[in-house]
Structures are given as C-alpha cells and as structure tokens.
C-alpha cells in the first residue's frame, strides 16, 4: 500500500517560502572597495546591484523615453478629458461624478431674485440710488383720471371704432368722417393735450425755482412781529473747521522732470545762437538806418519841434552838461526808477584814488579758504583794480537803454568817460564799440586761440565760456577731443602770460586774467578728466626737467600758477595722487635747493609755503621742508653780533642778515602788511618789506601750528622756529607784528607744558597656555596637493567641481539613452525584417500551391485528350 503525502504540510511549507525575503545572489552583488578605511564612517554606496539597477533603468526608459520617441513628430492626438476616464472607475461612479459636476456648474450662477448679490437693480434706465435722490420723479399719480386730459383713448371712440362702430356703422348723415380721419383727429388732440400739459409743468417748475432763490426775502414776512431777524447758525466745531481746512488744503502737484546735462547744453547753445543772430541783426540794422534816417538840418535849426515825453518810462534818460562840463544829474538822483550814484568827474577821481591806494594782491584760492580766513591767508589772490573798472561801468548801467541796444563792456565805459570829459570841444568823435559775439568755434591751432583772446582783451573768460557752451560734448562726439585740445592751449596761454619778467602793472593784469579763467579751466577739466590729468602731468614734468638744469635758481612765475591750478582741479588730500604728489616733491625741492638772496626769491618761497599750507589743509600732512624754510627766514632776521653763530641747514647761510630790521617802525602804521605784486618783480629788500616778511612768516606758522597741534611731536617740529623767533628784536616792529609773534610763542610754550608724553613699553606677550592631556592629532596626507586659498575661492572651486561631476553624469545618461534607443531601433528593424521574411515565405508557399494546382489541372486536360 502506497504512503499518502500530507497535503496540508506541503501548503504550509509553500506559504513560508513565499513570505521569506528573497536572498540575493552573491554573484550579482558588486562590492565597491575603498583605499582607506575609516572606522565609524557610514558608506552609502559600498554595495551595489548592477543587474537590478540596470533593469530598473531600462523599465524607466521604456515608460518615459520610449513613449516620447513613439509619439515624436505626431499630431492630432485624441485626449479624452471626461470625468473618470483617466481614473479606473466603473460606469455608475462616472455617471454620478459627471451629474454632480453639472449641478455645481449650474448653481454657480447668481439668481436674479437674490437681493443679497451685488446685482444693480434699475427702473426705467435709472438705478435705485439715483431715484432716491428725490429729484421729483414721475409717477402714475401725476396723470389725471380724466381720459381727455390723460392723453388716452376716449371711451366713446373705443366703443365706436373697435366694438361695432367704424366703417360698418351707417350714420345716415352725409359728410361723416371716415375711420382714418377719426384716427388723425385723435392723434392731433392727444399731442395738443400733451404739449399744453408740458408747458404748464415747465411754468410751475420755473416759478418753484424762482421761489427757492428768493426765499431769504420772504423770511421777514413769516417771522414774528415782522422783525428782520437773522437765522442763527450753529457754531462750527474746531474739529470740523480743521477738517475742512485740511480737505481744501492745496496739494502738491507733479513737477517737471529735471533736465539732463545734454539738454541743458543744447539750450545754452541755442540761446547763444539766438543772441548772436540778434546782435548781427542789430549791427546791420544800425548801419542801414543811420544812412536812411539822416535828415537835413539847417544852421539855425533850434529843435523847436522836439517834444520830450516825460510819461514814457521806456525812453533813455538824456545826459546834459553845464558850461563847465559837469553833468546836470545830481548825486543819488532818482530818475525814472534809477539812482545815479555820482557825477562823471567825481567818478574819475574815485577811480584814480582806487588805483593809487589798492596795492595788495590776493591769491586765487578755493571757497573754503576764503570762508575760513580771508584776511590772514597769504594765498588769497584778488585783483583790487577790478573795483575801479566796475565803478567805471556804473555810469553806463544806471542809464536805462532799449532792448535792442547792446550792453557796453567796461572798456567801452572808460572810453565813454573820456568823451564826456572832452565835451568842451565843439566837435564830437565817434567811439568804436567792441562787441563780443555769442557763438565761437573752437580754434584748430594755438595761434588762432591767441588771436581771438588778444582781440577781446579783458574778456578772455567770457570768450572761453561761450566756446564751451557752443561746443559741448553732448552736442557732438568730436567736441570732447576738441575741448581737450582747448584745455592744453589754455595751459600754454597761461605759461606765456607769466613766463617773462613782468612789471607790477602787468602782473596785476595777468593775475586778473588767471583769476577769471579758473572757472572755465575747471569746467574743461570736468568734461575730460583723463585729458586734464595727462596735460597737467606733462606740464609739471616739463617744468621739473627745466628746473633740474639750474636747481639753485627759482623757476618762473608760471610754475606757481600751475601749482595753484593743481590745487583747484585735483584733490590734494589723497594719500597718493598722480598729479598732486609730484607737485609736493617739486615744491619741497624748491624750498630746499634754491638760493635765498633777494626780495624776489624770498617772496617766491613764501608763496610756495602758502600753497603747501593750502594743499595740506585737509590731510594735515607734515612736510619738514616748509617748516625748515620758515625757520631759515626767521634766522635771517636775527642780528649776528656774537662770535658763536647759529647753525642753520642749507640753503640758508649762518651769516645772512638780509631781513634784519635796523630802523624803528614801532610807532608807524601800515595800510597792509601782506605781500604785493611788486615783491615778485623787484630784488631790493627795503625796511617795509622786512616788516611784511616777518608778518607773513608768523601768520603761516600760526596756521601750520593749528594743523599740527594734533601731532604728539608738534613741540619738536616748531622748536627751532620758536628759538629763532625769541632772538629777533621785536621792539623795532609795529604793534600788530609784536602781538602776533608773542601770541605764537605763548601758544608753543603752553602746548609744551600741557603735553603729556607716554613712555614706550614692550607689547604685552600672550600668556602661555597650560599643558593639557589631550590627544595629539596628526595630519594624514592623502597624497594630493591642496592649495591654500580663501573661503570664497574654495567655495567657488567646490561648485565648479560639482558642475563638472554633474556634467559627466549627464553625458553618461545621454549615452545610455542613445544606446537604449539604438537597441530599440535595431529590435524594431529586426522585427520588421522577420515579418517581411515570413510574408515572403507565405507568399511563395501560396504561389507554389497555386502552381501545383495549375499543373494538376494541366495534367488532367492532357489525359482527357
């Protein structure tokens, strides 16, 4: 008897085998080995399953890449967007879901009977809010019940025309009205009644409006006892008053946009062109009208027909003179709104007094220097003779002129004064007016610019200003280079003005020209900064090369002008500047190397000292050469009597006594103790110059002390100057000079007493750390060279490494995708070839069968025959 198997046990064994996890084949597991093992380090990719991963990748490509490849270059895809088609739902669930969506869509519309909605209800084209304004709307009650007045059809007419009447009714009367005539008569009467009703309504409305306007006049009639009592208005609350003021307060409006630099330059050029055209027009008009309007006058013509119109304020005030040649207009006379300040003779005397008294000069300095110390700063250049020229122009400016008459320049005004003084002569001489055009072209050569400036002498700044406006860089691209060339020409022009030995009057004139040209030169430098830097640097280099040939002789005055121009154009407070720093070195060499033997050379050094003071006003930079130079000048003011001589560094000599004051000027007063223009042209040292030299040195030292007071070593810096100043016999100098010298010495002594010096000590060393029992960490080298770089650079390199790695991974995936598509294409081609071969075989077999059947038929036919 055979042994039966336990079926239950077999089923249980199969169940456990099914639920057990699948064991991995050790041959399918790939182990990634590492060169260095680190204890405790978790590795994510230490083991891999290449087969399983490859199968997953292939399955993913089949569901994504392969599907995209199949639908590639195909259109007109039918998409079923019905509810439930993309989700596995039964037919009943789909129907319920579609019915629910349809109901929700229908209920989303607003009901016209739902008053809670935002629907605006209207009546006869007007909203309810407009109707509730009580503007006397029409209603059914306005119409009368009478049918004849309401405009409706009459009852008799309706009965006759619509119910049994009309054309079928036999009236028995001749001339009865037809149905059409009845209708026309009814329409006419209806329109007539409506017109009368409208006219009555308009009359009622007009009376009502008139009554509303005149209701104030009827108030006294309805008040008690007929008294005219005003209606008391309630007092306005302060809050309501402020609220109304704020409500009706003027509000700000949007202003016009600011104009750009190009638009401003274009407008300035257009205005100058218009003024130039008007000037040319006036010039041509004057020539033609003077000849055309000439009128013959006899010898006994006494101008009897001349009538002076006193009421016309636009006419010119005519100047008249007495027998002695003096004008009849009084001083401070008010004529037609203009005040005449002085007569011509008094004006000429004031001009002469101004020219004799004003001898001092001031340097062209910045606005900050003028605001801080305009009286004591030696570097303030200002030509005082301009005041006389401005006064000369007053007599012309005070006379009102017509709009077509050009304004005369100061030079023309002086010529006018000469003709007034020569009025005693019987014949009058014509004066040529020098008019300045409003538009200029940029000269191509330096000679052309020089001719233009010489033609309009005294107005060079106005010519240059109009050149810049008419040729602004915003108007043309080529103007920037041309203006840069104009900047170089102006530097050459300044060099020619101050290169020769000039007298006092010429120096005044040339310094005045320089002062007026500085704003235009500054504008040119702002338009082309690079050109200004290069041009000024080349000029400084050229002057330095010329100076090195004779380093003990002071360079010309043009070098001082360029030093001053550098302080205006470039920042002097920078630690290092490509133009200012060489100027520092150049000025220090002049103060250290050049001889000091006459008045001109001493004034030159004082001017450079004032420029250094201006250069270091903000940076407070210490230059030992200038303090040494000022101390040397003080040494030259000390009488050398004893055998022991005071030591002084070069270029000063220990025995020099050029500035020793021998005469007593303690009781004399000076108009001005500042240096003047004559100090740059004369070499003889006078007693007056010795007083002014000491005053200037003390003033410059005081300002340097204000700059260097913050330095701990300021006492040592001014120690030698203080020592020499104490040895100068101040009794011979004026009171003002003595007071300034004593104040300087007292300030230096006080600062020396109050100064507290700190002793030098060694820097505190870092305390040595205690020995701790910590593990000694050794650096493990992986054989790679790591560069020492910053945190930002390391982060950038890390990101670049990640990009490189991702790029490699992307390329790898692309190669795999191409290989997958290639395999699919080959498989598809093999499948199509296989199908084609099978079709060919089937066709051949069918053809063979047909041929065999034909052969069989042929054989049967042959047998019968």
TrEMBL record:
UniProt feature, compositional bias: Acidic residues: 366-378
Keywords: Nucleus, Ribosome biogenesis, rRNA processing
GO biological process terms held by the UniProt record: maturation of SSU-rRNA
Record flagged with keyword Phosphoprotein: no
Source domain of life: Eukaryota
InterPro entries, per the entry: Nop14
GO cellular component entries: Noc4p-Nop14p complex; small-subunit processome
Subcellular location(s) per record: Nucleus, Nucleolus
Residue ranges of the region described as Disordered: 349-391
Annotated PANTHER family: NOP14, NUCLEOLAR PROTEIN 14
Similarity field: Belongs to the NOP14 family.
Known role: Involved in nucleolar processing of pre-18S ribosomal RNA. Has a role in the nuclear export of 40S pre-ribosomal subunit to the cytoplasm.
Protein name: Nucleolar protein 14
Originating species: Psylliodes chrysocephalus
């Amino acid at each position: 008897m055979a042994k039966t198997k336990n079926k239950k046990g077999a089923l249980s064994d199969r169940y456990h085998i099914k639920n057990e996890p699948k064991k991995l084949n050790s041959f399918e597991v790939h182990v990634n080995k590492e060169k260095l093992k680190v204890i405790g380090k978790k590795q994510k990719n230490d083991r891999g399953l290449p087969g399983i991963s490859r199968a997953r990748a292939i399955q993913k490509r089949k569901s994504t890449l392969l599907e995209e490849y199949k639908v590639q270059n195909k259109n007109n895809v039918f998409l079923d967007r019905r509810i439930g088609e993309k989700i596995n739902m039964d037919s009943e669930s789909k129907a319920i879901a579609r019915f629910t969506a349809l109901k929700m869509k229908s209920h989303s519309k607003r009901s016209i009977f739902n008053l809670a909605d935002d629907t605006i209800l209207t009546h006869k084209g007007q909203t309810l809010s407009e109707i509730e304004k009580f503007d006397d709307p029409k209603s059914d009650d306005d119409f009368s019940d009478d049918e004849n007045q309401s405009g409706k059809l009459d009852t008799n007419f309706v009965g006759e025309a619509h119910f049994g009447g009309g054309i079928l009714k036999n009236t028995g009367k001749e001339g009865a009205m037809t149905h059409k005539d009845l209708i026309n008569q009814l329409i006419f009467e209806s329109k007539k009644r409506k017109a009368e009703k409208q006219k009555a309504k308009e009359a009622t409305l007009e009376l009502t409006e008139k009554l509303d306007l005149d209701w104030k006049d009827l108030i006294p009639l309805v008040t008690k006892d007929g008294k005219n009592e005003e209606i008391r208005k309630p007092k306005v609350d302060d809050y309501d008053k402020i609220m109304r003021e704020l409500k009706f307060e003027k509000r700000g409006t949007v202003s016009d946009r600011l104009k750009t630099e190009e638009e401003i330059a274009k407008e300035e050029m257009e205005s100058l062109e218009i003024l130039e055209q008007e000037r040319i027009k006036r010039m041509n008009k004057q020539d033609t009208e003077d000849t055309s309007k000439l009128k013959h006058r006899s010898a006994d013509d006494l101008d009897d027909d001349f009538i002076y119109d006193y009421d016309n304020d636009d006419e010119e005030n005519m100047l008249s003179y007495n027998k002695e040649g003096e004008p009849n207009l009084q001083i401070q006379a008010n004529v037609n709104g203009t005040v005449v300040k002085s007569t011509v003779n008094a004006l000429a005397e004031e001009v002469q007094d101004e020219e004799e008294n004003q001898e001092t000069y001031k340097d062209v300095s910045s606005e900050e220097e003028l605001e801080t110390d305009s009286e004591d700063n030696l570097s303030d250049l200002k030509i005082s003779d301009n005041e006389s020229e401005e006064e000369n122009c007053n007599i012309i400016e005070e006379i009102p002129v017509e709009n077509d008459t050009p304004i005369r320049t100061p030079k023309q005004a002086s010529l006018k004064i000469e003709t007034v003084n020569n009025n005693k002569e019987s014949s009058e001489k014509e004066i040529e007016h020098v008019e300045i055009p409003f538009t200029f072209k940029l000269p191509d050569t330096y000679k052309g610019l020089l001719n233009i400036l010489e033609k309009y002498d005294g107005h060079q700044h106005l010519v240059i200003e109009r050149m810049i406006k008419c040729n602004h860089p915003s108007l043309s691209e080529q103007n920037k280079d041309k203006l840069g060339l104009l900047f170089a020409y102006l530097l050459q022009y300044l060099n020619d003005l101050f290169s020769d030995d000039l007298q006092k009057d010429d120096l005044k004139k040339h310094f005045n020209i320089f002062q007026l040209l500085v704003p235009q030169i500054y504008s040119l430098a702002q338009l082309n900064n690079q050109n200004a830097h290069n041009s000024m640097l080349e000029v400084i280099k050229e002057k330095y090369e010329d100076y090195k040939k004779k380093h003990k002789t002071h360079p010309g005055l043009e070098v001082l002008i360029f030093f001053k121009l550098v302080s205006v154009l470039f920042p002097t407070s920078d630690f290092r500047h490509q133009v200012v720093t060489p100027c520092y070195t150049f000025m220090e060499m002049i103060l250290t190397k050049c001889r000091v033997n006459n008045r001109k050379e001493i004034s030159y050094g004082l001017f450079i000292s004032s420029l250094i003071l201006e250069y270091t006003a903000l940076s407070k930079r210490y230059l030992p050469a200038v303090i040494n130079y000022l101390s040397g000048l003080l040494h030259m003011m000390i009488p050398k009597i004893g055998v022991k001589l005071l030591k002084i560094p070069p270029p000063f000599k220990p025995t020099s006594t050029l500035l020793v004051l021998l005469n007593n000027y303690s009781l004399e007063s000076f108009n001005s103790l500042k240096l003047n223009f004559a100090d740059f042209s004369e070499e003889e040292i006078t007693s007056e110059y010795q007083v002014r030299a000491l005053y200037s040195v003390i003033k410059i030292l005081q300002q340097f002390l204000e700059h260097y007071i913050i330095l701990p070593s300021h006492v040592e810096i001014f120690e030698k100057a203080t020592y020499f100043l104490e040895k100068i016999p101040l009794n011979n100098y004026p009171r003002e000079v003595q007071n300034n010298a004593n104040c300087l010495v007292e300030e230096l002594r006080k600062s020396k007493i109050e100064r507290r010096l700190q002793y030098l000590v060694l820097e505190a060393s870092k305390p040595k750390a205690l020995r701790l029992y910590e593990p000694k960490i050794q650096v493990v080298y992986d054989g790679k060279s790591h560069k020492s770089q910053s945190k930002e650079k390391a982060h950038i390199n890390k990101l670049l490494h990640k990009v490189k790695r991702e790029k490699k991974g992307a390329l790898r995936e692309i190669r795999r995708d191409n290989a997958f598509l290639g395999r699919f294409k080959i498989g598809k081609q093999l499948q199509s070839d296989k199908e084609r071969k099978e079709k060919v075989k089937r066709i051949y077999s069918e053809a063979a069968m047909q041929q065999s059947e034909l052969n069989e038929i042929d054989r049967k036919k042959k047998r019968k025959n």
